[in-house]
Design a protein that fits this description.
Blueprint: H1 4-20, H2 23-31, H3 35-61, H4 66-90
Helix pairs in contact: 1-2, 1-3, 1-4, 2-3, 3-4
């Protein structure tokens, strides 16, 4: 069973991604000493970097109109995935984001 601080930091790793992008999970990854929190931060960081790439591709696709729709879709998916991961983290579970590119390997 994870401690209260571990759960709080794990939830923050996912929720901060909604507000500050990849910087929140990155900071939690760098300052945390707990392996469970680091794993949550790795998954959140992988997703936020992937979402940034998807937003960039959507921005390029704006010139052919479809980018508006894909940008909205990425935003909605980001919101849903971050909330789902935060709920799982609050229950002490590690959740792998679908559609996420694995930049950092989870141990």
């Amino acid at each position: 069973m994870a401690s209260s601080d571990t759960k709080t930091m794990s939830v923050l790793a996912h929720v901060l991604g909604l507000f500050v992008g990849f910087l929140g999970p990155l900071i939690i990854y760098l300052v945390s000493e707990d392996n469970t929190t680091k794993n949550h931060a790795r998954y959140a960081l992988n997703w936020q970097i992937s979402a940034a790439i998807y937003f960039l591709v959507s921005f390029v696709l704006i010139f052919v109109i479809i980018g508006f729709f894909t940008m909205v879709a990425v935003g909605i998916v980001n919101l849903i995935f971050c909330i789902m991961a935060a709920v799982k983290a609050s229950h002490g579970e590690l959740w792998k984001y679908p559609l996420s590119i694995q930049f950092l390997k989870v141990k």
